[in-house]
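Appendix B. One record, verbatim.
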Amino acid sequence: MSTTAEHVKCLIIGSGPAGYTAAIYAARADMKPVMYEGLQPGGQLTITTEVENYPGYPKGTQGPEMMEDFKAQALRFGTDIRWGLATSVDFSSAPHKVIIDEKTTITADAVIIATGASAKWLGLPSESKLNGFGVSACAVCDGFFFKGQDVAIVGAGDTAAEEASYLAKLCRKVYMLVRKGEMRASKAMQHRVANTANIEILYNHETKEILGDNGVTGAIVLNTQTKEERTLAVTGFFVAIGHQPNTAIFKDYINLDETGYILTTPGTSKTNVEGVFAAGDAQDKIYRQAVTAAGSGCMAALDAERYLASKGIH
């Protein structure tokens, strides 16, 4: 670990829609933000192909291109964007201390956490091969592309039930694959999917393989009770087994909920640590959209600006 620390006014950890939007606002407010991009520069949108629901892109755009646009705008106003991963923090006193790549120490008057969340996957090689080509972890983002088609969704919680209901409005048929003999979803959500005519719930089913080369053509599933395999003729395969917020390094200082999402003061981006703010999917388990992440990034920058002004830091 380095003995000398570089001091910055505003440090942004993470580089998805939340981080880049925070950078745009912070840079325009002359907060001279320094951003560390993390392991996945651009965040989850870089593994998304078509984005059609972000305002201002009437013809749609590609996720990676959109993040390049965000980055270019942050750079235009003078954000210092760097490659590196925050590996540990010390928020016990001001200025706050963040260690990058286990060796570089940065101290910051204000820190904006925008580390996002990572979708949980089944772990099949075919799943990663077809990710973005019919395999998705976001029905709200990608369901539209499967209008009138047959799809499968894996999951047993409220999110899976909600996404299955959403897909049922667009798709001809939705197979819902539940690993156990019952669902974890609330009773109301279970009733909703059970009473939707074009949703077929397959209990005690696991996915063995997702078929296809340039797009999904089917899925081989196993009934774990009868040991019978069958092939579902689907063109879309959705994984809704949850997300893992990328917040482990903050747990000793920042209040998290039971699943690891950062708790913020309602209506703000403020955490329990003065001068540390959180935006995007690291603190949002409800909406998880690019547009809401960007909005919360704006909030974090404005909250940080007001905080610095209140401390007389210019």
